[in-house]
Amino acid sequence: MRVIAALADLKLVARVSEALNVTQPAVSKQIAELEKIVGVPVVTRERNRLYLTPIGNRLADHAKQALNQLDRAAFDIEAMASGVSGSVSIGVVSSVAPTLLPGTISQFKRITPQANVSVSEGHFVELFPQLEAGVLDLLIARIWQPQELPGIDQMTLFSEPVVVVAGRNHPLAQKKDLAWADVAASAWILPQANSVARQAIDALFAANGLTPPSNTIASLSLALNLEPLRVMPALGLMPQRLAQTQATRGEIATLPLDTGGLLSEARCFWRADQIAQNGALSLFLKCLQQTTDELTTIPFS
Predict the structure, then answer these.
(1) Which residues are registered as beta bridge partners of 118?
(2) Rounded CA separation 21/198 (Å)
(3) In which element (H, E) is residue 247 found?
(4) Cα angle vertex 164, ends 163, 167, to 5°?
(5) DSSP one-letter code for 103
(6) Which sign, positive or negative, has the C-alpha torsion 141, 143, 148, 149?
(7) pLDDT value of position 232
(8) Quick check: 86 and 118 in contact, CB under 8 A?
(9) What are the backbone dihedrals phi and psi of residue 155, each rounded to the nearest 5 degrees, phi first?
(10) How confident is the model over 40-56, as a mean pLDDT?
(11) Which of 239, 235, 126 is nearest to 187 (CA)?
């Protein structure tokens, strides 16, 4: 399983053998054995590279999911045996919370039910001073112009596009070709003016030669934002996964506008001196990484 999963990402037998610490002949032998089992080719060869066939790609997807389950089982057993207790306080921006926190908290509480979790939503500028002061143990946010922060460790979690959305009855909802100039004068539901996200959005409009929208509703709540989109001709920004879910339900439409990687990267931040002191934080970070790894094996669709 690990060979076919690694081959999907690395393409070269030499890289797969190095990553798995096995010989190249051993990799080739396992590929041949797998093809014998399934009865059809799982790879095609082009010069020095191997490319998975459609069946090979499907096998790789299943292999990645199975390996994640095995890794999670090993992690769960180790964590339960550690007897971690205590508490962890999480600050999170609303555009990340629905994607990461339900699975992470569920896993954390399953393996250490005696530990407590508290969650506060806000924007980065509001939450970061609380992290520095020790009120929060962990901060999860989308970032713009990443930089090193003194005394703070950080980890990239995932990358997910942010898309422009409108209610299904919005006049622009069925348009196949739009430019930013077509939407600049619209009503927009946006983050608060002093937030990092709002600064990034203003910069996006400026990059397209436009002044930021003046007809705005400032709101942090994704759940609340869905209602104005439904009842009035407003536009908003939403993580792609959530937008796809709402579009499938017929609630909103995604507009064909290039957001240029706007706020696509999510990271978590914690004080560098806390991992050794707070076992609950250390375990929560591991659960968060497990959830993130599972997200990356599920394609957007």
Answers:
(1) 89
(2) 46
(3) helix 240-248
(4) 125
(5) H
(6) negative
(7) 92
(8) no
(9) -140, 130
(10) 80
(11) 235
The per-residue b/e assignment along 54-92, b for 16 or more CB within 10 angstroms, e otherwise, is: eebeebbbebbeebbeeebeebeeebeeeebeeebbbbb
Tokens in use for 143?
């970032």
DSSP letter for each residue of 11-60: --HHHHHHHHT--HHHHHHHHHHHHHHHSS--EEEETTEEEE-HHHHHHH
Q: Which of 140, 132, 141, 142 is nearest to 273 (CA)?
A: 132
pLDDT at position 80, please? 59
- Pair of tokens at residue 101: 């926190």
The one-letter amino acid code at 218 reads: A
* Choice between 72 and 106, residue whose per-residue pLDDT is larger: 106
Tokens for 268, please give them. 């978590």
18 touches 3 (CB < 8 A): no
Is residue 121 a contact partner of residue 220, using CB atoms and an 8 Å limit?
yes
Domains of the chain: 2-79 (1.10.10.10), 84-156+267-296 (3.40.190.10), 162-254 (3.40.190.10)
Q: What is the CA radius of gyration of the chain?
A: 23
DSSP 176: S
Q: pLDDT tens for residues 143-166?
A: 988 889 999 999 999 999 999 999
Which tokens sit at 155? 């980890």
CA angle 215, 217, 222 (to 5 degrees): 140
